[in-house]
Design goal:
Elements: H1 6-18, E1 22-26, H2 37-45, E2 49-51, H3 62-67, H4 77-90, E3 96-100, H5 102-113, E4 120-124, H6 135-148, H7 150-163, H8 172-183, H9 187-197, H10 204-210, E5 214-219, H11 227-237, E6 240-244, H12 251-254, H13 256-269
Parallel strand pairs: 1-2, 1-3, 3-4, 4-5, 5-6
Helix pairs in contact: 4-5, 6-7, 6-9
């Protein structure tokens, strides 16, 4: 089993010392753990403790990650889930857990392995299985990252989205944030996640048998897993479903206030 990083252990120690309910944030395909920093501050001010773990063997800095991408190249969802479980078990209070996109698949595997790992679960813009309609694109994207790096892949991906009919976000600041977030990633980690998203299977029926109180939430224009698919997943899980207006696959950036409000209401009630 991978060991916890110094940063993760410090966050866990602070959470345990606080005596507050912990929230664990699991990042998705375009993200790094640091992308949750604003949200960690927000919910710490609201009376929670927070932890945002990385991947197993994750280097301490982005620069180190770029110098050693091989540590990410062959990670599985199960390995990342095992690392999350290690974090959760180190907390003295059972955490509320949120997984965004790929992070939702990680949390799913962790809960299936140990249903006691979370007091509640939020699946944010996360579907039940592989992105079938994007499998070929994801595979090509992963190969492209390995070959030419992030910048050309970002440009090509955006062009393909525009050609498929997707509209750019109306707020240029959000578009700039999404690009900056993509470009700050480790290439090896990003390529590994893309390949997993193209192949992972549906385990919703298994999850429904063991899941804690669950919220499924997405933007009304989510362009990864369709909102209808996520609503069907919520129904199978017996979970509450929330569709966020004027948001797509990154509601934490697109509609931060309404997203935070929905999360707070769910966590306060569970």
């Amino acid at each position: 089993m991978a060991t916890l990083t110094e940063h993760e252990q410090s966050s866990i120690d602070q959470a345990n010392a606080s005596g507050l309910t912990p929230v664990v944030f699991i990042h998705g395909l375009w993200l790094l753990p640091s992308s949750w920093d604003r949200w960690r501050t927000l919910f710490e001010e609201a009376g929670y403790s927070t932890v945002a773990p990385g991947w197993p063997d994750d280097p301490e800095t982005v620069q180190q990650a770029k110098e050693h991408p091989e540590v990410f190249a062959h990670k599985t969802v199960g390995q990342v889930a095992d690392h999350f479980e290690e974090v959760a078990r180190a907390l003295t209070k059972k955490p509320a857990v949120i997984g965004h996109s790929f992070g939702g698949l990680v949390v799913r595997e962790a809960v299936l392995a140990d249903p006691t790992v979370a007091r509640s679960l939020v699946l944010l813009c996360s579907g039940p299985a592989a992105l079938d309609q994007r499998a070929e694109v994801l595979g090509r994207m992963a190969d492209g990252i390995d070959t030419v790096g992030l910048a050309p892949v970002w440009a090509i991906t955006r062009m393909m989205e525009l050609e498929s009919g997707s509209e750019p976000h109306q707020d240029p600041a959000v578009t700039a944030f999404l690009e900056r977030r993509f470009m700050s990633n480790d290439p090896g980690c990003l390529a590994a996640m893309a390949r997993i998203l193209a192949t992972t299977g549906d385990r919703t029926t298994e999850l429904a048998a063991v899941a804690p109180p669950t919220l499924v939430m997405c933007g009304e224009d989510d362009d990864a897993w369709a909102p209808k698919i996520q609503q069907e997943t919520a129904s199978q899980l017996g979970a509450r479903f929330v569709s966020l207006p004027e948001a797509a696959h990154s509601p934490a950036a697109e509609r931060p206030e309404v997203t935070a409000r929905q999360l707070a209401e769910f966590w306060d009630a569970s």
